Amino acid sequence: MVLFPTLFLVLCGVAFLAGVPLNGYVLLIAGCHVERTASTVWFWNRAMTDFIFIVFLPLRFISIFILDLDWAKSLSNTVSSFHMFSSAFLLTALSVDRCILVARPAWARNHCTPPLSFRMVVGLWALSVGFSLRYGDLWESLLSPANTSMYFRLEKERVKAAIAIQFLVGFLIPFALILIPKFYIVLAAKLRRNRLIQSTTPLRILLGLMPTFFLCWLPYHVFSFLQISAKYPLPLLNIGSTFACVLTYFSSCLNPIFYLTMEEEFLR
Length: 268
Known about the structure:
InterPro entries: Formyl_rcpt-rel, GPCR_Rhodpsn, GPCR_Rhodpsn_7TM. It is a multi-pass membrane protein. This protein is mostly helical. It contains 12 helices and no strands. The protein has helices at residues 3-33, 38-55, 57-65, 70-103, 105-111, 114-132, 138-142, 150-191, 196-199, 203-229, 235-261, 263-267.
């Protein structure tokens, strides 16, 4: 238990020092060197969510080790939820965009324009903000001392409902909506292989982003449900939930690495 703060600090430092320059570089090359297309808008905003998330990592560290900073805890939890919702929504939109481009290439070229994608991104960001604002005090409610008051029981019910909504809207439903277009694209690729060479250029990048997001966020949701199912919060459970949060930050480090290892595909 003595090594826990040191190990947590080291992991946070690695994620921050690696994530900020990597995501900044991706934003730079995407903004300056990539042709403006609908796919560019999706990928650039996806990288922006990672950059915002990793920049606020020191706030997460402060909120854990300086317990009396309620504003830091609230803002850190809100930013984490915003990243989860916005990433899930943008990945879903990217998958649908790829599916439309494969199914109706002529229609997609005429209608799926950068201005339309930008308006949809603004809507998804607003939706993400709306969902994330309710999670500022989520973990504080989970870790409150147990009592028998009616207010506490109502508060626990509110937290359970919030965690269920977070899991469904920010993880499970987007995962299902992403898989459906992917199955269609794979099936179409077998039937019309030559026609799909150009339309699936960003597909390999998307296939790398999907498992990174869902595998890194899965422990976060698992520990969320474990927290609300336990009668009293155990120290080991709290440590596990803390490292699950750290893992979500590493997803923002892995994404730019994946972009840069496929830089030619990414620039195309």
